[in-house]
What does this fold into?
Amino acid sequence: MATPLKRADGPQSVPALLHRNATQFANAPAYREKEYGIWQSWTWSQTRDEVEALALGLMELGINEGDFVAIIGRNRPYFYWAMMAAEMCGAVPVPLYQDANAEEMAYVMGHCGARFAIVGDQEQVDKVFEVQDGLTDFERMIYLDPRGLRKYDHAVLDQYSAVQEMGRTNRDKHIAELEARQAKLDYDSTGVMLYTSGTTGKPKGVVLSNRNVIETAKSSSEFDDLRQTDEILAYLPMAWVGDFIFSVGQALWTGFCTNCPESADTMHVDLREIGPTYYFAPPRVFETQLTNVMIRMEDASRMKKWLFDVFMAHARKVGPDILDGKSVSQWDRFKYKLGEAFIYGPLKNTLGFSRVRVGYTAGEAIGPEIFDFYRSLGINLKQLYGQTEATVFITAQPDGEVRSDTVGVTCPGVELKIADNGEVFYRSPGVFVEYYKNPESTADTKDADGWVATGDAGFIEESSGHLRIIDRAKDVGQMADGRLFAPKYVENKLKFFPNVLEVVVFGNGRDECTAFINIDLTAVGNWAERNNIGYASYQELARHPQVMDTIQSHVEDVNKSVAEDEMLSGCQIYRFVVLHKELDADDGELTRTRKVRRKIIEEKYDDIIAALYDGSKSVSTETEVTYEDGRKGSIKATLEVRDAKVVADVTKMAAE
It folds into this structure.
């Protein structure tokens, strides 16, 4: 039987939480944004006024209960307010990825039947106008930044500030109806609809209720003792469930302040200025920051580099134990304090992590070396496991139980079970309502008792109760001889190297594993600069003999590591190519959250895959690419196919 759902005590909707905060934390900062180099701030009381004015303006424009409102833009308080205002009107906010192309936007807006779109600037206006003829339900667009839009046809265009002013002017006309709509909202009302990344097909609209949002925000905030005085930096895509739960759900539940950077280019500077106490980033962000640190240390004086190496070696030895409150000798503590004064403190300040009290990473596995590096500095970095359908949280690591090889224990209110095939299932108050207009997929994913199939393979450690994820269940297969094939396990090991940006491993049903590799242009480019190696393009640098040799050494190091795992030793990489271009979401090779679309890659690069398996030493290929302005083109290249040393599989040899 399904677990009965309890009725909430207290606020039952996102707008109700906003009203509570405007009363309880009236003068406390709610949202900040940096614009033209200056931080602007809005209190909770001011935020409620801004949201209400927009909601009243939407009422004047004719928004109905049940309408869908597309939200398209970078992280700005105005867009968080737009999501709250839409729900206040009884409508459903649908945030989209701002870097999505027009066709991707057309699919989402057409699928949900969005009547309204609230967008950032001319670029987003142009993308919507490009596809509006195919959007039968679309009626009106509201824009934030007026630059470049003066001569546009404003028959279906309104400026954000003008809509708010319209709402204030017509307040008496609509306030009673707006309050009546708010009063109807309860735990079972839809709070938001978020689309999946679409790794295997078209994105699906995940309907999340107020129950999902509020219960998840409440339990996760209590789990990590989040406070009203905490600060976060909102820089991840607004269409991603993580940003919604952090910047809307938890922000409203706890009353902490959400800070929006001026732009992606100033994000690191803004991070340092804000000094968040609660921080989330996918592994790639932490990897990039560490790569930049190591690049800078390569250019440092011999004395500085020596000090860095000595104190970081000590930090790795005792830092995590000090962080977890374990026993450490007085001498080691004293030496660590010296390191804090000379190395760790300044480094954390440079990274913007001086005040981080709770930090999380998720989405992909993070390298143990990278994970331990940050914890050795005294940063309370932990791992969590979740998905859109769970309103993020499934498992998380409690303080004092932090490890690099697990994703933690079940979050409060979550139940876990492992199917016979190793697939992870969960049940919780955060479980989504349905996939919009897709009852078949809903039934395939969520059963009558509320258990949800994650699509991931893993197991629960008996001794600790921690969950370990092996790979995506659909990607786990068998080699030709029956041994386990888990590509993500090997890919993540290779991505731990700063020189490697992306990896795709092949081998399901085959005798051997092979791989595509993307170099990290920043890290490898810095190496080339230090060694006076000139290059004119990514392609030229990627095929440089020394770069190829370095990547080969990384592959062979990973093979040694993989060989130590008896269950996965068959996943060693025998041959590889360094691709001539970076895998790109605009080319359909990655999702907007940078997840690999394996099927598309296998079809698009079938000639290169064939060369990996037919013994060729090189392969000539031509690939279609999409430029930043949307134009299509192609690039030609001849790629070297490299062999890599593998470690003899003792188990296999004994069987033979």
